[in-house]
Amino acid sequence: MSIEEIRRALRDCFHPALKLNVEALGLIDDIAVTVDQDAPGAGIPGVPKKHIIHLRLYRPTEDETATAMMTELIRNRLYGFPETGTVEITLLDGWTPQRLTDEAREQLAAQLRPQQLVQIKAKG
Question: Residue 9 in contact with residue 78, Cβ under 8 Å?
């Protein structure tokens, strides 16, 4: 189980309102994987090792419902790996739009309605 595999899996987890995945939104701060020494069967020859996945995830908004939905989507997706024993998610404050990928910026801009755009006129 590699961090790159986990990052690819997280591309399947979308913010419920923005319809962009957590990777494109820049919500993932850090991923760590450790062997779970306390998992059932740990240390028994032939029993596959289980891992603890540690995620540090930025909250994109103050919407607790959206945050709860996203964290459960992430947990469910990562429990799809047979090697996953536990998923630990630490939520962080301080997300900024600078964390967005270029593709996410384009998608968000395309979602804006014309009345949401600001027009600036130069004095002539």
Answer: yes
> Cα-flanking dihedrals φ and ψ of residue 51, to 5°?
-125, 155
- Taking only the tens of pLDDT, the chain with its 124 residues reads 789 999 999 999 988 877 888 998 999 999 999 988 887 777 788 878 889 999 999 987 788 888 888 899 999 999 999 899 999 999 999 888 888 888 888 887 777 665 555 555 556 5
Number of domains, the chain? 1
Please name the helix (run of DSSP H) or strand (run of DSSP E) that holds residue 108, with its range, or none. helix 102-111
d(CA 6, CA 28): 11
Residue 58 in 3-state DSSP? strand
51 domain-assigned: yes
Q: By residue range, what is the domain housing residue 92?
A: 3-116
